[in-house]
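User: Can you predict the 3D structure for this chain?
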Amino acid sequence: MAARRYEREGQPAITVDLFDMGTSENAFGIFSFEREGRDVGVGQGSECEAGMMRFWKGRYFASILAEGEGPEVRGAVFSLARAVDAAIEETGPPPDLPGLLPKEHLLEDKVRYLRHLPLLNYHYYVSDQDILHLGDGAEAALGTYAWDDGRMRLLVVRYATRAEAQAALDDFLRAYAPEAGAEGAVQTEDGKWTVARCRGALLTVAFDAPTRERGQGIVDSVSQPQEGP
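Assistant: Here is the predicted structure, written as C-alpha cells:
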C-alpha cells in the first residue's frame, strides 16, 4: 500500500490510497466489496460518490477520498484518479466466476467476489463457522436478484476438486439446513427457501427464494462449470 495526501489552500485535503493486491482478481474483489454506483470511466471499473472515488486496474485498487465536497473538489478527485490510472500501465482480467451467475434479474452493481467467510457474512450472514470451507482456498461470487415480490441471493463457490465441493455441501447442509434432505431444499422460518446444489467442483446456494421452484430454477440455471478432478 502507498498513501499520499494532497492539500491546496482554501480547499479540502484529498488522500489517495493505492493497494497492490497481487492479482487482478483480488483487485476486482476488493473493488466489488462495496460497489454501489455506476461506472465513471476510470481504470477497469470505477465509481465516484460524495467525494470518494474507487477503481481497480490490473492488480491495483485505488481509493481517493476528499475531506469535503464541491465542484472543484470533484474535479480534483477525477484529475488525481486519471493520473493514477495513467501511471498503471498493466491491465488484467477480472475473475471469471461472477460470469457464471445467471444474468436475468441480476443487480450487476451488487455482484461480490470474495474468498473469506467474514466478507461473505458482511453481505449475507451464513455462520460464524466456516461451514462452506472458504478458508481452504475456495473462491466465491455472491449475486443479488430482484423481482417485484422481493430479493434473493445466489452464492456460487468454486473449489479445487469435486470432492472438496461435496464435502463443503455436506457440512453446509448439516449445519445450516439439516432438514433439507437429498434435494438440498428447505423452507426457513420466514417462509422463504434455501436450495443448495453441487455440480463438479462448484457449489451453488440460493438464499431467501420466495418459492422452492424459484430457488431450484436459479440454482439449476447457473452456467455449467468446467469439471473438476
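Residues 71-87 form the longest helix (17 residues). The longest strand covers residues 11-20.
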